[in-house]
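re the bet — no i am not wrong, look at it urself. input seq straight from the record:
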Amino acid sequence: MQSSSLEDAYIHALSMAKKLPKPELGEDSIISFSGGAEPPAFILYRALLHSGVKAQLASASEVGVHIIPYRETGPLILFNVGEKDSRVIHTLEAASLLGIRAYLISPHMHPAYEEKVESLGVERILIDSRYPLLVMSLSSLFWSPRMMGGREGRFRAELGELESAFSWIASKIKELDHEEARNVNIVFYTPSMAPGAYYHCYTLPTCIQPAQLEYALRLGRGARGIAYINGVEEHDYKDIIITTTLKGVKLSIVKLDTDPVTSGLYAILAAISLTGTIL
């Protein structure tokens, strides 16, 4: 997809995300995801952490089997992208049985699954878009609680300027080899950049799952990959970058010096620009 078409699609997704209803984010919220829906869950979870709100992040299966049956929690916020995912239904059934308020943020599922969700009394936030993963990721930022101290004003101002974010990110990474980015099969990340790494990986048929940057040390000479790095986290990973380079591993670096809460979204926009694909 051409850059102008990518930006148009991004602006449309941004407009849709702003209109979505906001779930209740109480103390001890559980932020969960089905396979493929990690990016928005990671973004919302990090926003909660930085706002000082107690929260937990876990996959749908882990929530339903290992968490909510054993302790009291706040509301469950579950992101999904699949049309048929039995783990989503099992987790929502467990939440309903235990009296836990649950939200499902998802595009249209199979009619039988939608009927089951409705019968459970789950609060449904429907993502009616060609690009549900991007819309959900954007909405996660808009649902962020108040940041602590003077950071709140800066954070809200940044959200108000997201219309220009795609072109800004594209200009930041224009020197990177876009063709190579579309052909790597190993994607790494530092913590706050995980949403972009997952997004990038999901656009590549040869990428199984991204990994934290520490795992780049296991690569041998001649291996190639791409790494998403936030500037505030870079100091913890300089030794890894140096060691892998000396070993003859070629890592393309996507480095963004942005706020840790918004960096997940910016990393997604970088992945979109590099791969030419929106999900």
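see?? The chain has a mean pLDDT of 95. told u. also The two ends are 12 Å apart (CA to CA). so pay up
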